[in-house]
């Protein structure tokens, strides 16, 4: 029988997992924000590309994009490996099981309305105040594989953020003795920081989303609704936003 890992070992594990995934994203985001906020042009006049093409050759762009998605999911696989249980539910430590798939899916879809509409309003307000960069989406008709790749990217984001920032962090931080609200707030702050590259309003909006998601997870212990909600929100952002951006450029600052 193996000894239970010490708090120091768990803390080291958390640091490694985060630096391989969203902790690294947070560091890059801070650097990007420092870059855009110290340029001569105001933040509101600067742009950041959303899901940009990686090559002007279609087959190579597809290869780049698929490779990026695959590599981004490796930390998710690592977390699953670390928290896998021999007995069913194998992913119970992450709050994932197949006990009520339709109810979880419906709950996730309902969350989209609660989060998505205020999120869009916050982005537009940030653009109007010049505090948010202009997020420029890739055109939907760039290649035949553009929309399927965007759907995969949305799923990748939903899995990566919720499995690591909610499921994994909550399980590990509980084990080293953190209180529920300390975990909720810390996870929400991390979520906000790795969106800081878009501007302070985006960071604050994602902190609010993180607080809601963390509170719901603490109450229900179910991760699937959060994955569904996040994925659907990103589908709307990755696919719906490019259509709206092209159709109503004045509204979105295009």
Identify the strand order in the major beta sheet.
1-2
Instruction: Estimate the global geometry from the Cα principal axes.
Output: globular
Strand content: under 5%
Mean pLDDT: 92
**Biggest beta-sheet profile:** 2 strands, parallel
Low-confidence stretches: none
The portion of residues assigned to helices is: 55-70%
H/E element order: HHEHHHEHHHHH
Amino-to-carboxy terminus distance: 61 Å
Please characterize this protein's 3D structure.
There is one protein chain. The chain has helices at residues 7-19, 22-37, 58-72, 74-83, 101-128, 146-175, 180-193, 200-220, 224-247, 249-252; strands at residues 47-50, 134-137. The protein is mainly α. Strands 1-2 form a two-stranded parallel ribbon. The protein is globular and about 60 Å long.
């Amino acid at each position: 029988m193996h000894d239970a890992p010490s708090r120091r070992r768990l803390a080291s594990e958390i640091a490694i997992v985060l630096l391989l995934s969203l902790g690294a994203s947070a560091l890059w985001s801070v650097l990007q924000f420092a870059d855009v906020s110290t340029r001569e042009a105001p933040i509101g006049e600067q742009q950041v590309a959303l899901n940009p093409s990686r090559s002007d050759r279609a087959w190579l762009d597809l290869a780049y994009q698929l490779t990026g998605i695959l590599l981004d999911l490796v930390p998710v696989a690592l977390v699953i490996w670390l928290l896998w249980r021999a007995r069913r539910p194998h992913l119970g430590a992450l709050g994932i099981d197949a006990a009520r798939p339709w109810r979880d899916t419906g709950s996730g879809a309902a969350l989209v309305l609660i989060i998505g509409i205020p999120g869009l309003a916050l982005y537009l307000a940030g653009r109007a105040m010049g505090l948010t960069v202009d997020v420029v989406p890739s055109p939907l008709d760039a290649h035949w594989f553009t929309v399927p790749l965007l759907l995969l990217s949305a799923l990748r984001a939903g899995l990566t953020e919720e499995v690591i920032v909610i499921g994994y962090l909550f399980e590990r931080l509980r084990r080293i003795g953190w209180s529920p609200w300390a975990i909720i707030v810390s996870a929400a702050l991390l979520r906000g920081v790795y969106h800081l590259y878009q501007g302070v309003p985006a960071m604050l909006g994602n902190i609010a989303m993180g607080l809601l998601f963390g509170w719901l997870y603490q109450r229900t212990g179910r991760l699937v609704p959060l994955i569904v909600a996040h994925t659907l929100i990103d589908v709307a952002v990755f696919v719906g936003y490019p259509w709206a951006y092209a159709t109503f450029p004045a509204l979105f600052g295009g």
